[in-house]
Each structure stands twice: as structure tokens, then as C-alpha cells.
């Protein structure tokens, strides 16, 4: 079986470029929100 209960049909891709060596990719289910704790770095980015 799959580790996911149901397949995700609509996917959002978030790409963040930090440095030439660091790129962060995040995949989201476009149809269902999920709770995610904000990281300290994300809060600091908002303030700039």
C-alpha cells in the first residue's frame, strides 16, 4: 500500500531560491489546507 491515504490530484509547487547552493521545493495539495508551523526564518522574511 501507499503511505498516502488518497492520491493528490491538484498539486502546487513552491520553489524558494536561497543561495547558489540552496533551493527549497515544497509540494502542496491545492485542494486541502494543512496546518504548518512557521519557521523563524519565514517570519523574518515577512518583516523585510
Fold and architecture overview:
It is a single chain. This protein is α+β, with helices and mostly antiparallel strands. Helix content is 17%, strand content 29%. The protein is built from one helix and two strands. It has a two-stranded antiparallel sheet. A hairpin with a 5-residue loop joins strand 1 (11-17) and strand 2 (23-29). The longest helix has 8 residues, at 40-47. The chain is extended, with a radius of gyration of 14 Å.
Summarize the structure.
It is built from one helix and two strands, in the order ββα. With 48 residues, it is of the alpha+beta class.
Distance between the termini: 45 Å
Q: Detail the poorly predicted runs.
A: none
Number of helical elements = 1
Helix content: 10-25%
Strand order in the sheet with the most strands = 1-2
**How many structural domains?**
1
- Beta-strand content estimate: 25-35%
In terms of quaternary structure, the protein is single chain
